[in-house]
Amino acid sequence: MKIFFFLSLFLPGLFFSETSKTFIDPTGTYILKGEVHDNKVVSHSGEIRVKLLRPEQLTLCFYLDKGYPRYESGSLLDTLRYDDNQAVYVSKDSDCMLRFYFKPNGVELIHVFSQAGSDCGFPPGVLIGAFFRKTSSGIPVIQDLSGHKVAVGY
User: Fold this and answer.
1) pTM
2) pLDDT tens track for 28-49
3) Count of C-beta atoms within a 10 Å radius of residue 41
4) Which DSSP helix (H) or strand (E) runs through 8?
5) Which of 4, 21, 42, 86 has a CA that sits 20 to 30 A from residue 35's CA?
6) How wide is the angle at C-alpha 136 spanned by C-alphas 40 and 145, nearest 5°?
7) Which pLDDT belongs to residue 86?
């Protein structure tokens, strides 16, 4: 009995599963700030807006810009399943998916593909894995961000 008590103090990972994570309400706005040199955003920048609809479903809009010199960009607007603090977007046009892994201070974007060069319909080089910092927990406006040039480098 003493051994079990001792182990339970020092090895909690053996007794509690990953599925017992604390639920994170993903509602809010998340920003990826690009680096600025000579008044030009020279690296990736973007924005993710999320609204939780039900505990198992969210809607989001997402915009990502490659930066100077051409500022190629891509965006998406969709309603996704939310489970285990994650939402997954599966592209209808290619063999790729985007995983949005929510944390208390932001969201990690992970790009997964089965064929090299598969960019989920985004222009080449625009889609990257990145961490977007949470800037607001308020309910954002969910809208098409394709024409949205966010000034997130400043």
Assistant:
1) 0.80
2) 999 999 999 999 899 999 999 9
3) 22
4) helix 2-10
5) 86
6) 55
7) 97
